[in-house]
Write a structure and sequence with these properties.
- The structure is a single chain.
- The chain is α/β, with parallel strands linked by helices.
- The chain has a single domain, classed as Alpha-Beta Barrel (TIM Barrel).
- Helices cover about 35% and strands about 15% of the residues.
- The chain contains ten helices and eight strands.
- The strands form two sheets. It has a six-stranded parallel sheet. A two-stranded antiparallel sheet has the order 1-2.
- Helix 8 links the parallel strand 5 and strand 6.
- It starts with a helix and ends with a helix.
- About 5% of the residues have low confidence.
Length: about 350
């Protein structure tokens, strides 16, 4: 299995270079889904049971029910091995340029893993569970920074809970948790990781980023709405260099919340969909970049796909050829805008 993964990653790195990409990733090829590196590296999570964390909304072309991708916390969460120890060395040794690794946000897990009558026998509440998870994620981020990673990205779809009114309501109804308090704790947990990375970094060029989306599984999503409800607190509170933001369709709202982004931060506009096979029009992308530039200086903007092409092993209804066409489009438009 590892030899197959190695070969596929080497091919991927070559294709990334051919597509004009300058920061290289292994595509999370060694994971079952974007966050499995955490649950697979700890004790205390039963992955054989379904977690009640998502209510997927289906794209018209995708009818099958998206599966559970986490588990339930049945014991104390304790690290038993590194989260990315099976990934980082190979990527660092074989990347043709600066290397990037993504990790799931600590905030991704408490609402997924916590089940009343089970988890509360070990953790009194979601906050206590989050604290243990945040410590593990922060330790891993620090190790990556010490090893010389150029780009570390936290993937944090859970912030969508504080964007979408139906999820804010569910949070209150199911747990009694105040969404604003939960948002504060989420920001604090992610900052713990970012601060650990900066402290441990051996390079002045380390880039710390966070990616926010609304769910990405076989063309499906679970949340809707613009960033308005969280923009001021989130953009001013997270100690990152870059915000990767989903902006591929009307579910993402307007660019107006970008007015809260501090002047020293970069906003990566996720304008190219990884959910739909239709190839975007370059002129439309250029127009939308111009719209965003009314709020953020052009030199502080960048372009990317809205999310990963396969956040779960089943992927999205997009062929490999279309994926690479979209990546070349991103690269071509970026060069046209920024040189």
């Amino acid at each position: 299995m590892q030899s197959v993964e190695d070969a596929c990653i080497l091919e991927l790195l070559s294709r990334e270079k051919d597509a004009g990409i300058q920061i290289f990733t292994d595509g999370e090829f060694r994971r079952r889904n974007f966050m499995s590196d955490f649950v697979d590296s700890v004790e205390g999570v039963d992955t054989g049971v379904d977690a009640d964390g998502y209510r997927w909304q289906h794209a018209a072309s995708v009818q099958d029910k998206a599966s559970s991708i986490a588990g339930i916390a049945t014991g104390k969460i304790v690290s038993r091995r590194r989260m990315t120890g099976h990934e980082a060395p190979f990527l660092l040794a074989n990347s043709p340029g600066p290397a990037k690794i993504t990790l799931p946000s600590a905030n991704q897990f408490p609402m997924l893993l916590f089940q009343k009558g089970v988890t509360d026998k070990v953790y009194p509440n979601h906050s206590a569970l989050l604290a243990d998870i945040a410590a593990i994620v922060s330790a891993e981020v620090a190790l990556l920074a010490r090893e010389g990673l150029s780009y570390i990205q936290i993937d944090a779809p859970r912030y969508s809970w504080y964007i979408d009114p139906k999820w804010r309501q569910k949070l209150r109804a199911d747990t009694g948790i105040d969404p604003e308090q939960a948002l504060d704790e989420a920001i604090e947990a992610d900052n713990l990781a970012f601060d650990a990375a900066r402290k441990a970094s051996t390079s002045d060029g380390l880039v710390l980023a966070i990616h926010l989306c609304r769910g990405n599984n076989r063309g499906n999503w679970y949340a809707e709405g613009g960033y308005d409800a969280i923009a001021e607190k989130l953009f001013s509170g997270l100690r990152v260099d870059r915000f990767l933001l989903e902006y591929d369709d009307e579910r993402s709202g307007s660019f107006e919340p970008l007015r809260f982004v501090p002047k020293d931060k970069t906003v990566v506009l996720g304008l190219v969909s990884s959910k739909r096979p239709e190839l975007e029009n370059a002129d439309d992308l250029l127009r939308r970049i111009d719209e965003a530039a009314k709020l953020i200086p052009l030199e502080k903007l960048a372009l990317s796909p809205q999310c990963g092409f396969a956040s779960v092993a089943e992927g999205n209804p997009v062929t490999e050829d279309v994926q690479w066409a979209k990546m070349r489009l991103v690269s071509d438009v970026a060069r046209q805008v920024w040189g």
